[in-house]
Amino acid sequence: METHVLPFNRHTIGNAAQLIIAGQPVAIPTETVYGLAADATNPKAVARIYEAKGRPSFNPLIVHVPDLTAAERIGVFSDEARALAQAHWPGPLTLVVPLREDSGIASIVTAGLPTVGIRVPAHPAMQAVLAAVEGPLAAPSANASGSISPTRAEHVFKTLGGKISLIIDGGPTERGIESTIIAATGGPLRLLRPGPIHIEAEADSSAEIEAPGQMASHYAPSKPLRLNATHAAPEEFMVGFGGVPGDDSLSPSGDLVEAAARLFDLLHSADASPKERIAVAAVPNDGLGAAINDRLRRAAA
Ligand code: TXA
Ligand code: MG
């Protein structure tokens, strides 16, 4: 894939919006770091973020919206959360709040959790894309998994060149580190990730820095789950893949983007089914398969 690096202007924003609406991720500057943004309501588009980053596990991603009104259509804000949003948005603060049932956010964005991280970015490029797309954008930092967060378009190109089609060059980012993350999900505020904005909150031991993707809060089904299954036992809800059929399938055609996009929805349906156990067909471990298998192993543990 050819990667275009284009300056931030009206024409580039139009290109970016078209790509995002078509389900492709685009690298966009924010005031913290460059983000790799995709349509947060389209699970395949979000799976392509993971594919491009080569991320070996699924983390809940931050949803970017233009303002507090848009944020309140996705999450449930307590008075305390709303006051923080009013004080610091637009800006480098992410609020983790309960997810609304009618949010329209794909389950791969929240990694199946009943909460969602939301932020209103201050950067005019990200704001312009949000306005053009007219929908929420999921965006982790725009770097390959395991490499440092990008604060310039060149940094993005270094690790994602050839893997995405557009990088919007808005020059160096102002803050240079990722947003402060505060959980406002009931009880006292919790600091999940320190960042540019200082807010009084309890330190949280499950914060991402020590163990990305290993947060205790990660969604896991409540039923026993068996991996690499070829057939279902009578009491098992079978999750198929490729040539292995099931009660439902991650992807009948064996497409890993589709499988990643459907993973959390399928785990939820399997959990909600009358069957006592869950069996899952083998998924190859290459590309996105590594992230899918990481999640399945945790769900089976
Ligand atoms: O500054 C930033 O926040 C950048 C720019 C691009 O906006 N984005 C960013 O995203 O750093 P990311 O995906 O690297 O960080 C997401 C982190 C997760 O690892 C997790 O710690 C936290 O946000 N998070 C998101 N949703 C959460 C949730 N529902 N519960 C707990 N933590 C959540
Ligand atoms: Mg990151």
Folded structure, characterized:
By secondary structure, the chain is of the alpha/beta class. 28% of the residues lie in helices and 19% in strands. The chain has eight helices and 15 strands. A nine-stranded mixed sheet has the order 2-3-7-4-6-5-9-10-11, sandwiched between helices. Strands 12-15-13-14 form a four-stranded parallel sheet, with helices on one face. Helix 1 crosses helix 5 and helix 2 crosses helix 7. The structure holds threonylcarbamoyladenylate and magnesium ion (MG). The site of threonylcarbamoyladenylate has 28 residues, from strand 5, strand 6 and strand 10.
What is the third-level CATH name, the topology of the largest domain? DHBP synthase
Distance between the termini: 38 Å
Helicity level: 25-40%
> In angstroms, what is the radius of gyration?
19 Å
Number of strands: 15
CATH superfamily of the largest domain: DHBP synthase
Shape: globular
CATH architecture name of the largest domain: Alpha-Beta Complex
* Biggest sheet overview: 9 strands, mixed
- Proportion of strand residues: 15-25%
Mean pLDDT: 93
Write the layout of secondary structure elements.
Elements: E1 4-7, H1 10-21, E2 26-29, E3 34-39, H2 43-53, E4 62-64, H3 68-72, H4 79-88, E5 93-98, E6 115-119, H5 124-133, E7 137-138, H6 153-160, E8 166-169, E9 180-183, E10 190-193, E11 202-203, E12 225-226, E13 236-240, E14 248-249, H7 256-272, E15 277-280, H8 289-300
Helix pairs in contact: 1-5, 2-7
This protein binds threonylcarbamoyladenylate (TXA) and magnesium ion (MG).
Residues 140-141, 149 line the site of magnesium ion.
